[in-house]
Fold this sequence. Notes:
Number of domains: 1
Number of strands: 11
Shape: globular
Order of helices and strands: HEEHEEHEEHEEEEHE
CATH class: Alpha Beta
Keywords: Signal
Number of helices: 5
Strand content: 25-35%
Signal peptide: 1-26
CATH superfamily: Oxidoreductase, molybdopterin-binding domain
Low-confidence stretches: 1-24
Pfam families: Oxidored_molyb
InterPro entries: OxRdtase_Mopterin-bd_dom, OxRdtase_Mopterin-bd_sf
Organism: Billgrantia antri
Mean pLDDT: 88
Helix content: 25-40%
Amino acid sequence: MHALWPCRAVLTLSLLLCSITTAALAESLPPPEGEVLLRVTGDLDHPNVGAELHLDRAMLMALDQGVIETSTPWTEGVGRFEGPLLRALLEVAGVDSEHVRIRALNDYEAEVPVADFHQYGVILAMKRDGAPIAVRDLGPMFVLYPFDEHPELLNETIRHRSVWHVGSVHVP
Length: 172
């Protein structure tokens, strides 16, 4: 029992430091220096450009990342997808909402419950098998659920929530 104490202490300290880092990032996020890939609009506490949060690739990659190895209804075979956890994005933006509206570059929109982000570790996929996802291949970002890990997600509702070519997130 006593041998586990140092491991628990290190784990607790690591989790605390992660939460402090995320909170510090949210409080002091500067405007982006590179091309804006994502805009978060609406009811958020931590904007960085006017009343919006604008993020470039470097800023998105600095958020807590997730990795999902899965097949999808739109790609061939199993891929290793990487990108920021959507729950981390909302935390940095200072969002307290039950759902968000995710909009594609072509104006397609889907309302997505924030609970999905926590329950399934949904990511904003930016890489597949180590390479950036091109616009012609669902990129530069798309909402990705862990389909192989949770086969119950292979339904029409979740497919509609899996927005491709993401350009913005709106918080009502």
